[in-house]
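Hi L.,

You mentioned the student needs an example of a multi-chain input paired with its predicted structure. This one should do, with 1011 residues in total across all chains.
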Amino acid sequence: MKGFFQNLLQWLVATLRVVAITTVGTGVGYLLGIGLSFLLTLLTTGTGVLDFTSPAGVVLGSFFAIPAFSWSVSGYGPVTKGFLLLTVSGLVGYLVGVGLDSIIMKSFRPTAPVPSAFSLLFAFTAFFFGVYGYRGITRGLVYQVVWTLIGGFIVTGIRALMGLSAFGGFFFTEPAWVFGALVGAVAFLFGVGVMDDWVKWARGMDTPEFHEDEPGWEKYLGVSLDHKVIGVQYTVTALFLIAVGGTFALIFRTELAASGLQFLNVGMNLFGQNGPQLYNTLMSLHGMIMIVSILLGIAGIINYAVPMLVGAHDMAFPRLNAFAYWVSVPAAVLLLMSLVLGGFDTGWTGYPPLSVKAPVGQQMFFLGVFIAGWSSILGALNVIATVVRMRAKGMTAMRLPILVWASVATSIIALTATQLIGLSFQLVMFQRLFGMGFFDPAKGGNPVLFQHLFWFYSHPAVYVFVLPGLGVISELLPVFVRKPLFGYRWVAMSSLGIALVGFLVWAHHMFTSGMNEYLRVPFMYSTLLVAVPTGVKFFSWVATIWNGKIETPTPMLFVLGGIVVFLMGGLSGPPNATVSVDLHLHDTYFIVGHFHDTIFGGFVFPFFAAIYYWFPKATGRRMSEFWGKVHFWLMTPAFFVLTFGMMRVGLLGMRRRIADYDPAQGFDTTHLILTIAAFAIALSVLIFLINFFHSIKHGEKAEGNVWNSRSPEWQVPSPMPAHNYETPFEVVGEPYDYGLPGSKYIEFMPAQGGKH
Amino acid sequence: MAHKQDKASMLNQGVFIFVYLAVLTVLEFLVAASFNSTAVLIAVALVKGALVVYYYMHVYKLSADHEGDHNSYEYKSGTNRLGLWLFLISDAFVFGGLLVMRMNLLGLTRPNLNQLLGLGVTSILLISSFFMNRGETMIAHGDRKGFLNNTLVTFLLGLGFLIGVVFVEWRLAAHEGLTPSSGAAGAAFYMMTGMHAFHVLTGLVFLAIVWINGRRGLYDEKHYPVEAAAVYWHFVDVVWIVFYPALYLVGTAIV
Ligand code: HEM
Ligand SMILES: [Cu+2]
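Structure written out for the whole complex:
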């Protein structure tokens, strides 16, 4: 007992120290911020105004909080150095931006978008410079920044020669920004080094088939061809974006806590947007950043697991694999740029005509999504080729792990449908740039066409989000109930079934859009049909759990949570699909509740399950069970409160995508509870993140078959060696025959002379 | 299977297929000029596309060598081939989307374009596919000189197509008042031809790369890069086989 209290005391002291140092850092930044804005008002208007809610205080406060936090947790290591540089060069970037802007615009505009853009780019780049030096990702980012400017200036120069306006409210004009951003993104790829081998091939040179990776964590910040490294890169990037998107959500959720405009009011001004505009931008970016993080998250699971599950030494095209990951990084930068370049207010769907009128941020958003789409497409291509061509001996179609089936189904959608969102966004971009009238009725265009093209991807995309997660559930469930998976064939085929039916339902998002009315009924029935293959999965899970010897370590908790939450999402879908009901539900918070249930059940919970489950495989250590359970038991109830509350206010008449609501509607209290629930979820994820990074170095050692799984990757010691299995294996039985005496899934072949 | 045949018969086959394609092209042109049946135009485009996909792009090779040593050149080429086709399927969805856009916005009307020029650039691209096929056949049988010459001709024809569309057709159209911002027809026309021209341009880059490397002495029976460049080139041709009637022939001309 004494030891326990001593531990508790130590833990409390350590936490207090972290909190104290972080608070001091934040305070210093905050004071600096309001001091600066005081000086500014003094300089510009002659009378100084001390504004305690000035955004400068908030921004600088958080700028200073980060290095302080990092220093208090890990001391002065590379990460703290990175964060310090981040803060410093964020400020330098801001000053450079202000300077350039005031020279060219001939007026002093400290809250204009450009200084923020510079600040963001400088800070991002400097962080990686501090951590890693001038190579890999740092070099990519430097290339991106420099070439964005070069590209922008080229167009600006051409415009000047043509007698058009050279600069605009956002420093560059819109065409200059778009061209610069495109050039910058391509330059990133050359800078980071992922094109090196291809350039050599094009020049007729040979390259070695593999490249040795640096040891330790440094290999994650440069180009690696190892699918396991790339899987981790995807996963960590996804977690980063989840943190960013989640922060945005907390900001606008706080605004929604009560009716009336709290702090995102008309008087404030940040990044050239007033409060309600900023609300719209944050809401829109929350949606798309989360979607991109899902795409990267599933790519992380698939990349990490699939080659090991099928017994391949890597993906079919390792260089393409690296390319697909790295192309998502400049895409993420562009998405963040859209926040500071005026933002946009369309939501993640970007419907014209609104998206034709929004500021330049809309273009950065379109371009970012377009480029991220290539990550998805090329990754999917690689997965299909790997599964078709690289399987171990004896791994026939009906012996493939379910996660592999799910990944293939996902990839079929991502490979094909993604092009259509790319195209729809591209058409709006061109409409903005060249006045092409695709969606402009005045020119004979058709705005509803955009919605068809957009949803032809974006409905199937929701299955891209969930199929891998559902695959993870089917994959892990037998391990933790020690029973065979029920109805293997049906489950395997249900993924394909969902993927294929998913192509035929898109217009259920358009029941109120003014499309031809006779289209409604067929799309209603095709949508309801999706419930059939989805139901197959549920029957299989329930029957698998039935009478099993259930163990509940953290991964299993998240699997079970995923099943229940996805059930809620699945049950709230058919009402939306029923035309008569959807005419009322469309664009209300009920929809928001519905899709958060599906996405958390189908992606977020399984994603956490997968991380807790494969973490020991990747690191040789396991994450803390205790904090894992805290994470689960905090997040799950809070999440139910959140989505059921959303559905409730939705049914009572709360519209989607608006910053305010009428107190007469009587749901102020519910909204307050929702905001509290949102913060509880954020806290649980913070706990997860700390557990994650802490366990990499300090977790309990776990080098064997931690979960007592039959899957091939667990039959060899962790962490996995560079090219996976040293001796190839042969599949000799069924994958999920847990608990059947004498059954065997794989057998390692006797070592051969040549290399595999 | 066709690909096991000797060089002479492969080259002959290329000629026959080209004659079919040429006849069908003339046919569709005449159909459009006389009784303009959309159904016939679609049917002809499908047949032309299928001929190219099968005989020039050798789609059947996808089913070959699923067994065998995973480290052999053949097996790896098979994997690369699958990857390339998956990419083309993906890319086809872009063009499919553009076609949907065109149908939705314009229906059975079309921009009023220069018919002779359209037939001209279409023929140039078809002929380039013919030479590409010859070039690939030749390197497969170890004839480097033949490969280089035919690829060069392909490249020049492709360049001719690009110039024909971007520098001649676009100017003529703009002169007639069809500009990107003039309306839905202009938007559809420039978007479709522009996206296709961009693919022609990348195809030219690939052709240049294999041609230069071929001159340096790369490629023998192991010539997957040449095959890839050729398949891509033919794919760009297939797209035009559909876009040509969609832009120049279907329906009645407006503006
Ligand atoms: C039984 C299965 C499902 C049915 C019947 C269904 C039905 C629908 C319908 C009809 C809508 C449009 C409602 C409206 O806007 O008026 C909708 C919206 C949505 N659903 Fe589902 N859904 C199902 C599963 C899923 C899954 C698995 C996901 C995600 C992973 C998902 C994600 C979404 C999203 C993101 C939206 C909102 C899109 C937006 O307007 O921004 N749904 N669902
Ligand atoms: Cu949908």
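You could point out the following to them. The domain at 7-254 of chain B is CATH 1.20.120.80 (Four Helix Bundle (Hemerythrin (Met), subunit A)). Chain B has one domain: 7-254.

Best wishes,
N.
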